[in-house]
Design brief:
globular, mainly alpha, two-stranded parallel ribbon, 4 strands
Length: about 260
C-alpha cells in the first residue's frame, strides 16, 4: 500500500553527512581583545568640547578649527585640534555614534597603543589632506573616524582566511559604507571629502604595518583543541618604527605644503 505524500514542510530534515575519515573536527577561534580605553575618552572629550563651543563665543571654534591661512602661518596645532570640534549637534551625534560603534570595536581588536596611533596619526593624515586639497575652513572627527574604518578593513582583509564569511561580510559592509559616505560628500559641498579620503588611506596604510597578525598556535599544546587561541605575531611593541616613519611622512608633506604656499 502506497503511503500518502508528505508535505515538504512536514518532512524530517536529512541528517548531516558523516565526517570524512581523517577530517579534523570543526574549530572555533579565540581572538585576543582589549578593553576599550581611549575610544570612551575621545567620546567624552568631544562632547565636553562641544559644550564649550556652545558656552563660549565663536572665538573658541575659530581659534581651533582648520584655517588654511592660519596653519600656513604657523598654527600647526589646528590640524590636531580640528578633530575635536563639531559644527552642530547632528554633526556631533553621528561622529559620536561612529566612535561608539566602530571605535570601540577596533580598539578591542587593536589594543590601546595601536588604536591611538591609528586614530591620531590617521586623523592628522585626514587634516593634511584637507589642508592640501581644500581651501575652506573645516572641523570634525570624521578624518580620524575614517582612519579607524580603514584600519578595520585592513584587519579583516589580512585575516579573511581565518574569519571566512565574517571577514567577507565586514569587508562588503565597510566598502558599502565608505562608498555611500563619499557619494554624499561629493554631492554636498560643505562635507570635507578630502579629510575622509586622507584619513581612510592613512589609517589603512598605517594598519597594514601595525595591525595584529593573528595565526593559529601551531605546535602549541592546545593546537588540537576545538577552540584555538590565536596568537598575535605583530605585537604593539613592533609598531613604533612604522608609526615614526608615518609621522615623518606627514611632517614632510606639511613642510612642502607650507613651503609651496610661502
Amino acid at each position: 500500500m502506497n503511503e500518502p505524500p508528505v508535505h515538504p514542510l512536514e518532512r524530517r530534515p536529512e541528517p548531516p553527512p558523516p565526517p570524512q575519515p581523517g577530517a579534523p573536527p570543526p574549530r572555533s577561534f579565540h581572538v585576543p581583545t582589549a578593553r576599550p580605553v581611549l575610544a570612551p575618552v575621545v567620546l567624552a572629550v568631544i562632547v565636553v568640547i562641544f559644550l564649550l563651543q556652545q558656552a563660549d563665543d565663536p572665538e573658541f571654534t575659530i581659534r581651533f578649527m582648520k584655517d588654511n591661512a592660519a596653519i600656513l602661518k604657523g598654527d600647526y596645532y589646528r590640524l590636531f585640534t580640528m578633530m575635536f570640534l563639531h559644527g552642530n549637534a547632528d554633526h556631533l551625534f553621528f561622529n559620536g555614534l561612529a566612535i561608539y560603534v566602530i571605535g570601540f570595536r577596533v580598539e578591542r581588536l587593536f589594543g590601546l597603543a595601536r588604536f591611538a596611533l591609528i586614530y591620531f596619526l590617521g586623523g592628522l593624515a585626514g587634516s593634511l589632506a584637507s589642508l592640501v586639497f581644500t581651501e575652506g575652513n573645516a572641523l570634525g572627527a570624521s578624518g580620524a573616524i575614517f582612519a579607524v574604518i580603514g584600519a578595520e578593513m585592513v584587519f579583516f582583509y589580512v585575516h579573511r582566511d581565518i574569519f571566512g564569511n565574517l571577514a567577507r561580510q565586514r569587508l562588503n559592509y565597510i566598502i558599502f559604507i565608505v562608498a555611500v559616505e563619499l557619494f554624499l560628500g561629493f554631492a554636498r559641498p560643505y562635507i570635507d571629502n578630502a579629510a575622509h579620503i586622507g584619513g581612510f588611506v592613512g589609517g589603512a596604510v598605517l594598519a597594514w604595518f601595525i595591525a595584529p597578525r593573528l595565526v593559529p598556535p601551531d605546535g602549541r599544546p592546545d593546537a588540537g583543541a576545538p577552540a584555538l587561541h590565536l596568537v598575535d605575531t605583530n605585537p604593539p611593541d613592533k609598531s613604533w618604527p612604522a608609526a615614526l616613519l608615518f609621522a615623518g611622512a606627514l611632517a614632510l608633506i606639511l613642510f612642502f605644503a607650507a613651503g609651496g604656499a610661502g
